[in-house]
Amino acid sequence: MAQLGTSVLGGLITELALVGWSGSKVGIRRVWNDGLKDIVVLGIIRVATILFGLTALKYINVSFTQTIKSSGPFFTVILTYVLLGQRTGWRVNASLFPIVLGLVMCSLSDASFHVVGFVAALLANCADCIQNVLSKKLMNRSYTASQLQLYTSVIAAALQISCVLYNEEASTRSQSLAFYKSNNFLHLFLAGLAFYSQSVFAYAFMSLVSPVTHSVTNCVKRTFLITLSIYRFGEDVTFLNWAGILLVTFGVYSYSIATKFEQTTITTLRIKSENGLKSRDTLGTDIKSSTTSFNHQEVKIV
Question: Is there a contact between 145 and 206 (Cβ–Cβ < 8 Å)?
Answer without folding.
Answer: yes
